[in-house]
Sequence to fold (147 residues):
Amino acid sequence: MPDVRIERDFATTPERLYRAVSRQAEVLEWWGHDGMTLPDCALDFSRPGPWHCVMIAGDGTRFKMSGQVTHVREGRSVGFTWGWHDEDDTRGAETHVTFSITPSDTGARLTIDHRDFTDAALAERHQGGWLHGPVPRLERYIASQIK
Fold:
């Protein structure tokens, strides 16, 4: 099955970038797409265990996802499962995401590996989702922290 791999370099330290992608207070600053509200989220990727998030788009559309944090390698990577819920709150197919942080020439590199998709169209939708929502928001968030 197809996988999604996205790499971005940030002008920050690997330690700072790791905190931004693992600590709930910081993840809430960039998770989702512009204009969404996050009324019910437990997005602490700093420890193994469950996570969930409800996002509401500007038009009122509700999105719910949940999973389990599968691994935490402090300062280096965090992995978690991901499943969307339907309108009846039934959880769908599960995929797996890993955020990996490594040093780069400009500071720190984030690699997002999102895998275990059931088909290519689903992988393509997720790649577009990452690239048009959370990744640019994370870029803006990190840039706003550099003063």
Summary: DSSP finds four helices and seven strands in the chain. The longest strand covers residues 91-104. The two ends are 42 Å apart (CA to CA). The longest helix spans residues 120-132.
